[in-house]
């Protein structure tokens, strides 16, 4: 029997003390994110929602600020998968501000008895973006292994104009990151990596035509000499998820990369998502996918990225 959908975009958190919860809420309010309580990872609640939503498998990720916490999160994430192997997968976090530590974490994760299903990175960490030259050794290792890399916007980005960054700032953060990666040939030089950008790649699909039109003009710095064809090839290689963006973001993304490169993401497990917002977004995914002939396609596309996960989901 075929499984239900794969959701590539689920979140978890490490257990926290009451003091840490209070600090989390205080920091969120300082960043204009007006939550009433700190989020907790409650697998039973997430599974209950997934059952109702027709989600058979959910990929989890969490990228803490420090390398030590990041390693703890990866270990905790693997323990979740061990307990629920047919329902959860793990995209292990990498500390991209410390390339040497990132290489060590890849090796550590890939020598575990139970291994993650892929890796997760954030657009900017410690002032280092994903197009930075220092990360080429990390991408080379992941390219050699043919890994899937899930790219999440910077969750610690401070919003502008008194509003929280998840509202619109993260969309421009993602667009800026993709553009920088294009000019640094990341997608060309490491073609065996499958990059999945969350939230329909933010604002980038709407701006991709502008990058193609103007990106190789003489007034644009282009130190690696990319051509318009190089830009087209790089753009067409990426994948996007649909989290919190399908209503107006999915159609530009489909035009940019094709329906085959769009995978379902719910953004489950964080305060900026509720059952209502996830269901409205999922309805938009179905409606737009149906225009291409199959309302279920986007929900199943993720299994092509993670074939072993499909086997687990059917067990």
From TrEMBL:
Enzyme Commission code(s) on record: 4.1.1.52
Catalytic reaction(s) noted: 6-methylsalicylate + H(+) = 3-methylphenol + CO2
SUPFAM superfamilies assigned: Metallo-dependent hydrolases (SSF51556)
Major enzyme class: lyase
Record GO terms (molecular function): 6-methylsalicylate decarboxylase activity; hydrolase activity; metal ion binding
Transmembrane segments: none
Residues of the Amidohydrolase-related domain: 7-284
Family the UniProt entry places it in: Belongs to the metallo-dependent hydrolases superfamily. ACMSD family.
UniProt keyword list: Decarboxylase, Lyase, Metal-binding, Zinc
Keyword RNA-binding: no
CC terms in the record's Gene Ontology section: cytosol
Name recorded for this polypeptide: 6-methylsalicylate decarboxylase
InterPro entries: ACMSD, Amidohydro-rel, Metal_Hydrolase
GO biological process: secondary metabolic process
A Pfam family: Amidohydro_2
Coiled coil feature spans: none
Keyword hit for Ion transport: no
Alphabetized Gene3D superfamilies for the sequence: Metal-dependent hydrolases (3.20.20.140)
């Amino acid at each position: 029997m075929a499984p239900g959908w794969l959701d590539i975009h689920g979140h978890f958190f490490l257990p926290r003390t009451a003091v840490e919860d209070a600090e989390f809420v205080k920091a969120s309010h300082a960043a204009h994110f007006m939550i009433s309580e700190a989020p907790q990872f409650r697998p039973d609640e997430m599974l209950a929602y997934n059952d109702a939503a027709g989600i058979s498998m959910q990929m989890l990720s969490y990228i803490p600020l420090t390398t030590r916490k990041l390693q703890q999160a990866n270990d905790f994430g693997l323990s979740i998968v061990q307990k629920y192997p047919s329902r959860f997968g793990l995209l292990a976090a990498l500390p991209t501000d410390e390339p040497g530590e990132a290489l060590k974490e890849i090796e550590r994760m890939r020598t575990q008895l139970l291994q993650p299903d892929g890796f997760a990175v954030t657009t900017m960490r410690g002032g280092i973006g994903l197009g930075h030259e220092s990360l080429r050794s990390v991408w080379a290792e992941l390219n050699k292994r043919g890994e899937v890399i899930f790219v999440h916007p910077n969750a610690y980005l401070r919003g502008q104009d008194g509003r929280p960054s998840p509202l619109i700032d993260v969309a421009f953060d993602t667009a800026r990151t993709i553009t920088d990666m294009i000019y640094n040939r990341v997608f060309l030089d490491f073609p065996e990596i499958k990059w999945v950008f969350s939230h329909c790649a933010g604002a980038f699909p709407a701006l991709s035509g502008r990058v193609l039109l103007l990106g190789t003009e003489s007034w644009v710095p282009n130190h690696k000499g990319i051509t318009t064809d190089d830009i087209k090839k790089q753009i067409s290689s990426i994948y996007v998820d649909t989290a919190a963006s399908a209503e107006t973001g999915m159609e530009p993304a489909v035009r940019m990369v094709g329906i085959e490169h769009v995978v379902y993401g719910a953004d489950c497990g964080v305060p900026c998502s509720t059952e209502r917002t996830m269901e409205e977004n999922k309805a938009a995914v179905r409606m737009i996918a149906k225009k291409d002939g199959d309302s279920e396609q986007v929900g199943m596309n993720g299994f092509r990225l993670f074939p072993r996960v499909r086997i687990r989901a059917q067990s």
